[in-house]
Design brief:
This protein is mainly alpha-helical. The protein has four helices and two strands, in the order αββααα. The protein has a two-stranded antiparallel sheet. A hairpin with a 5-residue loop joins strand 1 and strand 2. The longest helix is centred in the last third of the chain and has 27 residues. It is rod-shaped, with a radius of gyration of 31 Å.
Length: 136
């Protein structure tokens, strides 16, 4: 009986059954989870898109930032649905909870009161003006 140069035993499988260098033990890998609609939406919102800024130049920004800007700008133009969205989801938050990016500006309490007053007047004018037209 010839002496083996490699001893087979616990945690020492025979050489012919061992994985070759660079060979994976699980070549197909773990199966992927099915993607949900929420995952797809989040992935889409994180993608960068090219938009034209106020200077007329194109810049790449994430889609969710472009969407947020659009909602806020539409609200400022008087779009009731956008304004309602901003009032419902952003207005009641303390200023400190609204994250400040490098392009955003903070608002102190005095300015906030002025903004609240302006928005209420704007809403009143828009709703009162339509009621008067409907009655007249």
């Amino acid at each position: 009986m010839k002496k083996k140069d490699y001893e087979i035993g616990y945690k020492k499988p025979p050489k012919h059954t061992q994985f070759k260098p660079g060979q994976s033990g699980n070549p197909k890998g773990r199966p992927q989870k099915p993607q949900t609609i929420e995952d797809a939406a989040i992935q889409t919102l994180k993608q960068k898109i090219k938009i034209k800024n106020k200077d007329g130049e194109y810049e790449n920004i994430e889609a969710f930032i472009a969407l947020a800007q659009r909602i806020v700008f539409d609200a400022l133009k008087g779009d009731k649905l956008a304004l309602r969205f901003c009032m419902r989801y952003l207005w009641d938050k303390p200023i400190g909870e609204i994250k400040n990016t490098n392009k955003a500006q903070t608002v102190d309490d005095e300015k906030r009161e002025e903004l609240e007053k302006y928005v209420k007047e704007l809403l009143y004018e828009r709703t009162a003006g339509k009621k008067e037209q409907e009655q007249g």
